[in-house]
Amino acid sequence: MTGAGSARRDRQRIIRDLISREPIESQAEIAARLTDLGFAVTQTTVSRDIAELGLVKAVRASRHVYVAPEDLAPAGDPTDARLRRTLADYPVRIGRSGLILVLSGAPGTASVIAQAIDDSSLREQEGTLAGDNTLIVLFADEARLERFRDRLQALQPAPAQQPFETPEVQP
Predict the structure, then answer these.
(1) CA neighbor of 114 nearest in space, from 141, 75, 144
(2) pTM above 0.85, yes or no
């Protein structure tokens, strides 16, 4: 039985490594990668491994992929990793009205972004209020608003670079 337990641990270690390095959307993909690496697996074995590892599906770049539970920041954990991932998945535009920042994103994303802000290390804000695609972040003074905006912008991924286009030259 020791050999089977060791094989299971090795297989599960490989699965964790695979999902941390590349987006994997299905059990069939995991089984195929394991087979390529010399493991004889069935869909049932992969399903059991996923359950034992506690893997969950999460949205990454508009795709549902497997992630390890520790890659999802728990509520109340003051880390910016979740906010950084959330902003990568759901880009926002930042506007301003007085001591209020107005963040706009895709429909249905405001509450996810607001929760990620509330769970992050950002503490300059008085509070957040989310609608469907827009949320407002309230501040007590100008200095706090500026610090928050600077930190939020630093957490956002750089905008996608457009390929350089050479203009056509007419003879």
Answers:
(1) 75
(2) no
